[in-house]
UniProtKB/TrEMBL annotation:
<dbReference type="GO" id="GO:0015288">
    <property type="term" value="F:porin activity"/>
</dbReference>
<protein>
    <submittedName>
        <fullName>Porin</fullName>
    </submittedName>
</protein>
<keyword id="KW-0732">Signal</keyword>
<feature type="coiled-coil region">
    <location>
        <begin position="34"/>
        <end position="61"/>
    </location>
</feature>
<dbReference type="InterPro" id="IPR023614">
    <property type="entry name" value="Porin_dom_sf"/>
</dbReference>
<dbReference type="GO" id="GO:0016020">
    <property type="term" value="C:membrane"/>
</dbReference>
<keyword id="KW-0175">Coiled coil</keyword>
<feature type="signal peptide">
    <location>
        <begin position="1"/>
        <end position="20"/>
    </location>
</feature>
<dbReference type="InterPro" id="IPR010870">
    <property type="entry name" value="Porin_O/P"/>
</dbReference>
<dbReference type="Pfam" id="PF07396">
    <property type="entry name" value="Porin_O_P"/>
</dbReference>
């Protein structure tokens, strides 16, 4: 159809030209004219097609550029969010493996603890911290291990140098209870006085105020859940915030002084309204603890004393109305990597009986730090008192780390 229209137009154009020239073109001239017009039309079509192709290519490029810009903006926002989360979120932890060669019973190898810390900084004044722990390698029905949430609290700096913790936190008492990473203390096992008397590691759920009263002088005031044991057994009375009986609360206060380089002095007092949580007529309990830690050059010394005073006739009959213990630990570092220690401990969980013997323990050994937070340990534990028996005497080897 297009060719016929073009042919008609060419003939008309040729006729007009001939009339103007007063001549009649020959068929050959008309055919040449038609071919010339057809060539010009084909060239114009080719140019139009080329232009249309370039327009289509341009549209594709513009569309791709728009998509790239949009994706780039979305990707930038996502990367910004991830970077912000990474900057405000912290992950850490610690762990330790033990080998105990006992004198009078089977030896043991134990993946004693594997702990992860997770924290997040919501704002400059509001933060979160948690501690999640697996003990003894495996947990479950008829297994020796435990999975425990030891800390999970929100801390809010409500004013300068003063904050409040809400949730599950470590009770502010003793040396090891709040700082118990294996690279921070001597000995493969934690000392028995803080373990049996305090009892470390000990956490509760509640509210705690903390802050600085003066340079180097800090305080803690806490209202929290307490122990539950009608027989006055302190360590087994820990409820670990697991549907804990909260009929009666506990109140803890501590003062700590660190105003002199290398020195820490602290005293803690706790009152629990009823250590039996309603099982006995009366079982109020007082815990008192004082300690000192001093480091000067390569020499360090730790000393701690703690005592429970529990009211109640039933607990008094068991001799557990009074429980106490103390230890003294000197240590010396020959280099930044190598240190030795000795520790003497006495404790008694039935001190209410006048004829009850204290458990006496000597411990001595060596720590070797591969890095400041990775440590190898070797020590010997010697139970001196006859009432303790000799089955606990052991050579202990340990590996510990924190990050």
């Amino acid at each position: 159809m297009l060719k016929k229209s073009m042919l008609a137009a060419a003939i008309a154009l040729a006729t007009v030209s001939a009339q103007a020239a007063d001549t009649t073109p020959s068929m050959e001239e008309m055919w040449q004219l038609i071919q010339t017009q057809q060539a010009e039309i084909n060239a114009l079509k080719a140019q139009l097609n080329q232009t249309d192709s370039k327009l289509q290519q341009t549209e594709v490029k513009v569309s791709a550029a728009a998509d790239a810009i949009e994706q780039g903006v979305v990707g930038s926002e996502a990367l910004t969010q991830v970077a912000s989360w990474v900057e405000k979120t912290s992950i850490g932890g610690y762990g330790e493996h033990h080998y105990n060669h006992f004198e009078d019973k089977n030896d043991e190898v134990d993946a004693h603890r594997f702990v992860l810390y997770f924290g997040h900084q919501f704002t400059d004044s509001v933060r979160f911290f948690s501690e999640f722990e697996l003990e003894h390698g495996i947990a479950g029905e008829e297994q020796v291990g435990e999975v425990e949430l030891e800390q999970a609290f929100i801390e809010w700096d409500y004013t300068q140098n003063h904050s409040v913790q809400l949730g599950q936190f470590l009770v502010p008492v003793g040396i090891l209870n709040e700082t118990h990473e294996p690279d921070t203390f001597y000995g493969t096992e934690r000392n028995l006085v803080e373990k049996e008397i305090i009892p470390a590691t000990w956490w509760e759920t509640g509210v705690q105020l903390k802050g600085e009263l003066a340079p180097g002088l800090n305080y803690n005031l806490a209202l929290h859940s307490g122990l539950e044991n009608a027989e006055g057994k302190i360590r087994s009375g820990r409820q670990k915030s697991a549907k804990a009986n909260a009929e009666d609360f506990a109140y803890t206060a501590r003062l700590k002084y660190t105003g002199i380089a290398g020195l820490e002095l602290a005293a803690t007092v706790q009152y629990q309204e009823d250590i039996s949580q309603g099982a006995l007529t009366e079982a109020s309990a007082w815990l008192t603890e004082v300690h000192a830690a001093y480091t000067v050059g390569p020499f360090a010394l730790r000393a701690l004393w703690a005592e429970w005073d529990i009211d109640g006739d039933e607990i008094e009959l068991l001799g557990r109305d009074s429980q106490d213990g103390w230890y003294l630990e000197p240590s010396y570092k020959f280099t930044d990597s190598l240190g030795v220690f000795a520790r003497y401990s006495e404790y008694n969980t039935t001190a209410g009986f006048s004829n009850s013997d204290d458990t006496e323990v000597w411990e001595y050994g060596v720590n070797y730090w591969l890095t400041p937070t990775v440590v190898l340990k070797a020590d010997y534990t010697d139970f001196v008192s006859e009432s303790s028996g000799t089955d606990k005497d052991a050579l202990n080897l340990g590996l510990g780390w924190s990050f």
